[in-house]
Design goal:
Six copies of one chain form a homohexamer.
Chain A lengths: L4 E6 L4 H11 L9 E6 L10 H18 L5 E4 L7 H7 L4 E3 H9 L6 E5 L4 H11 L6 E6 L13 H14 L5 E4 L8 H8 L3 E2 L1 H15 L1
Parallel strand pairs in A: 1-2, 1-3, 3-4, 5-6, 5-7, 7-8
Helix pairs in contact in A: 2-3, 4-8, 6-7
Chain lengths: ~220, ~220, ~220, ~220, ~220, ~220
């Protein structure tokens, strides 16, 4: 019998981020369809903002995946740096989705070129390497940071304004036809920023969950 | 209230192809989830094998989409040449998915580089233009035709053998890590060819339906 | 005996555009050389400004080409969206030139990177796909719309000013070394805008006619 | 009054090559049209087969262009390494065409991807740099050498056979849809190799002359 | 005063590999120049052959770099998967070189396109991502595995033969003009394989040490 | 016995430039290591600022290399247009480094994307061709000219200010993570501009000398 549960791992330890992801995935929960369980990686830092933090969560993420793989239909690593994605794919036969990769490929179906809104300046070179590694540089419009760390995303003090302002620059100055929210912690702003920008805005965890639903149903 | 029905348009007039698509989408039908209605474009030719045939179905596809757009949540154009995709996107505000685009972006999550199995030699330059237009040339391994037209795909006389043989060449000689079935009419061979090739095989209509389910649930 | 006549098809129904093309091709009419007959596609809309209009003219263009192919040496499809180009090439053995493709390849011989001046914003994603499909993204500087529809190009009210202003931005801000007029209806402004911009300006129909002359003489 | 003469410079000193070019350009000579004068660079070596020979002819080519520029409408540098092309363009205001550049851009209008037939193995890295410098790597299928030096091309002993054999490998193994003769000295074999290969074969000097005719008529 | 010592970290625990690296660097030890200290990461596995092993050594590598950074002039991470390279660069202000990155950029100065010889099939997708992430796909000829794990590289039983055979295929079938040894453990075979292949063969640790010497002298 | 001397050829005749290069290389002179001899090409123009000047120095550079090749371990052509680089590599078996190529590949190890600071506007298209020919367009951020010719670089009147201003625009507006000084005559400003810009600044001759030291030690 098919396993229809999907495990969404938030690799940072901020429960508010996990809760935001959980709410964002609500529309993808269909009676009789795959379940979407969102959990917090307790070993993770409050926010994943540096390459060191990205690399540090790989081992616990993969340990968790290994432990749960017999009972889970597909995994989602819900951090926009896709930590451990390729390692996890080598070690489990279950489908594993990274939210950055999922967001980028989904964005290709929604607009001419995609822009990324990052939390901090330091994320930008990391994203640039990921775009090139994915072979998607010809469709990449640009990347703008809002200067707000992961744990401050929930505060709402001006977060939406900065997201919209960054989105506008990506649209108007860089020619982006679709914008990706470059952090799982931005999920709760998707609809509002899309309404303001009037071009599609992609929440990366929603993108990954969509692909994961297909994967578990089609295996 | 959200419209949760997805209309899958087979632009060729071969009912057997529509039936094959319909069966292939069965696993993606979830109780309480979006419906997936598959219809045959009566104006279409028996198979779409030339650029002329691709271009000829654009008008009836788009007329159909326009007529049905108020009551449909998302559209899928189920021909691997994605006829009318960009036109349809300009004329309806509902999400429209092309199966070639959907298959390529899905393949990016499943393997290093993707190969395409085509029906006829004449499809190969058309696919090459589509790969470049999508900005995906760096992830493209190659394209091999099996020399069987659309209406003969159902016959099963040697079709599987040729698909597997083409897939093996894509895997072994061209370094493909994932293979796309380059015709909606090949849907019934997906599982068997995947089992034989031991790398992921993507049915493009399944890929599009997966993305469409996410799109209608998230709007 | 060689057929030395070239048929230039203006797929929009605006006779003023056909007349402008006709005048622009005058310098390429050489006594004893190929003739250049310019005709208006009566089935076309007044201007081709959407993907729907692009797709709609494909069938009548190709019907016309088929009808005339025995007596014509080469065909030019004089719309910057190259409607039906690849279909026409599959259905006639006579050379067929698209003016966008011809302009881009000619521009490669005239400057480091090429910019495009479009009529309307909506043309820009279509052009971007065409640039990538042609594999020319590394030589593409940018695309700026002047916000004037096809039928208003003849009016001359500020058209030249806007063309020159767009050209200057392409040259100064985007690093274009050569500019392409992204509509057959802009032909009459080529010389004046080139004089103002002081970098080469390519009229796409002239570019196509040049290639067509070579093609019919060399067959 | 417009200057309608085009000067075609063969930078090697082999008169037989110049004579072959001259014959190949005959169809492009139109009564009342631009003249095409073919001359031999007396300072050139018998064949240009090394980077050293390429570089050595730049100075005399450019001296010749400077001397003749007042009375000539456009120049063609008829060596497939395009020696001095960018220098000449900086020093004269008259259009200058390189035959490699002209052949590549023309080939883009004739087939999906282009292959090159070279004289010697040593030419291949030089051509690869030129393809990349032109930004055309996505349309490049491959390059195969026939192992015959410039001065032996006239001999005809097996030259056609080797050209056709190289062309077949480019077509069948590398997916070339059009083949470029990668040496001005191969001009006399164009038609015969095209007939044998059944895909377009481009003589680079004919391609340059076509563009030059347009350039002088349109200035 | 300038710190002129370079720390070369072999992230696998096989002392024979460290010893081979040490010998390979001997020519780069110049009296009065930077010292090159080679150490074995005791936490490492015997060989780094999977993404899991790559990821697992990142933390101990970076801990070591942090501990030694005050007294060391530059670091080299001597594993062809460049584990922790970008993290280390974020956390220390001292220059850090990855041997894969160093080898690729050095190879660009030695030949038209570079091939890679890998230990195992599983390394190839990892290398492909690294080539694309570095933006070097246009200069990449191919990657061939010899099917020998890290700890068996010292054995010499047929290793050289397989390296030369893979190198020949890269040269003859893939057009490589230079070959990179895709594992630090292959260092002792560089000279012999270069002599056999007659094109440059790059030992990646030597390439990194060369760049590191420049970096410490120029700071 | 290994030849450990490196000959650095300044192809312009301005002794002040040679002297500046000589001083810039001082840190790379290691007791017991390769010597770095800097000489002025007496046949060169005062500054190499046009394609004509680039091409004109190729012959004397290569004559010099040929004359000195028996007694020299490696050559550096110290002009940012890399004149004669590929010719020299064909004619001598000794390693030859161009400073532009060396600077670009070194920059790849120092930052996400590289910017170039040029002397004059006219250099920019030449550099763009070189970036593409090297296959490095995906890592290229932009090129800005300071409008000062070679012989005025020594004057120091505002040169540093203009370099820093151009570097800031490359960093802030174009996203450069590392900047290359696009002229050998800018060597004396490297440290000061790096201090002002707070991102790595590459002197191309230092980059070439680093690679050359490795090359002569490893042969």
């Amino acid at each position: 019998m098919r396993q229809l549960n999907i495990l969404v791992i938030n690799p940072n330890s901020t429960e508010a981020v996990t809760a935001g992801i959980d709410r964002a995935l609500e529309p993808l929960r269909i009676a009789g369809g795959p379940t979407l369980e969102c959990i917090t990686l307790k070993e993770g830092p409050p926010g994943i903002e540096t390459q060191a933090q990205v690399d540090a969560v790989i081992a616990p993420i993969c340990a968790l995946i290994e432990k749960r793989q017999d009972s889970v239909g597909a995994f989602i690593i819900a951090c926009y740096s896709d930590p451990g994605l390729h390692r996890a794919r080598e070690t489990t036969s279950k489908p594993v989705f990274g939210i950055a990769e999922s967001a980028m490929v989904t964005a290709l179906t929604l607009g001419e070129r995609f822009g990324i809104i990052s939390i901090l300046e330091g994320s930008i070179p990391r994203h640039a390497r990921a775009v090139r590694a994915a072979g998607l540089a010809e469709r990449f419009a640009g990347d703008i940071a809002i200067g707000i760390g992961v744990t401050d995303l929930a505060g709402d003090d001006g977060v939406l304004e900065r997201l919209v302002s960054a989105g506008r620059r990506l649209k108007d100055d860089h020619g982006a036809g679709v914008v990706i929210l470059g952090c799982a912690g931005m999920a709760s702003y998707r609809k509002r920023s899309e309404n303001a920008l009037r071009i599609p805005v992609v929440d990366p965890t929603q993108a990954a969950a969509t692909l994961a639903i297909g994967a578990v149903r089609l295996r």
